[in-house]
Amino acid sequence: MNIREERWAGIPLLHIYPETGGESSPIAIFLHGFTSAKEHNLHYAYNMAKRGLRVILPEAHLHGEREEGLDEVQLSLRFWEIVLTTIEEVGTLKEEIVRRFPDAGKIGLAGTSMGGIETLGCLKAYGWVECAAVMMGTPGYVNLAKAQMAQYESRGFEIPLTAEERRKLLDTLATFDMTKDRRALDGRPVYFWHGEQDETVPFKPTKNFVEAIREDYQDEPEKLKYRFERQAGHAVSRTGMLECADWLATHLNDDAAV
């Protein structure tokens, strides 16, 4: 297995790929969480690469080697800037994949926490994403943003947005909000993992969304899988991590063992 530090179109990333498989391997893009960094998710990449996937772990805006010395509060106030930047950069990574690996197989997407939220936004934005795994993510961008703003203000923090800027932000977020139009999933295979005791990314909105989309997958129920762990909080279990890797391998690599 090979692990390389690279920079694609200015985006620092880790590129993990198996010794065999060549340039036609399917590809998984994995998005890390808030205050995390690309190298913190090598265990996901390892298990995916074992199954024949080429894995791309990009560094999020203002994180890891792209950090700008912001504290957690300052970073929190720029949360949606980070999310929207990542969604745009996933499109850039797709262009780089096409350029670097023109014979590559299917492309899938996964992420934890903020990365799970970004994954859902990318599913809304990009029809080329073949399958996805969402760990501790939520599709309701607008409701989450409103709740975050209310929480910041209740703690005495001033949100650096005018009323007009706030309105424009919510309008922009609505375009990536899967709850506004779940048809954007278009029957693509999606795996959800969430801890029921999660106090960082609330569990209930994810549960409600999954229950709603079950109807959309009734003809192909095998394309929707979810694991809600009753005692888990905001930390993906080993079972969830392995199921994420297995889900992507199964749906991206036709030769992967199911």
Task: Write a compact overview of the structure shown.
This protein is an alpha/beta fold and 258 residues long. 38% of the residues lie in helices and 18% in strands. The chain has eight helices and eight strands; from the N terminus they run βββαβααβαβααβαβα.
Strands ordered across the widest β-sheet: 1-2-4-3-5-6-7-8
How many β-strands, per DSSP? Answer: 8
Q: What is the H/E string? A: EEEHEHHEHEHHEHEH
Question: What is the helical fraction, as a range of percent?
Answer: 25-40%
Please give the count of helices: 8
**Main β sheet profile:** 8 strands, mixed
Structural class: alpha/beta
Q: Provide the low-confidence segments as ranges.
A: none
Radius of gyration: 18 Å
Please state the overall shape, judged from the principal axes of the Cα atoms: globular
Overview of the structural elements:
The chain is an alpha/beta fold and 258 residues long. It is 38% helix and 18% strand. The chain contains eight helices and eight strands; from the N terminus they run βββαβααβαβααβαβα. It has helices spanning 42-49, 72-76, 79-100, 114-125, 141-154, 163-174, 203-213, 238-252, and strands at residues 2-8, 11-17, 27-31, 54-58, 107-112, 131-135, 190-195, 224-229. Strands 1-2-4-3-5-6-7-8 form an eight-stranded mixed beta sheet, with helices on both faces. Helix 1 (42-49) crosses helix 8. The protein is globular, with a radius of gyration of 18 Å. The mean pLDDT is 92.
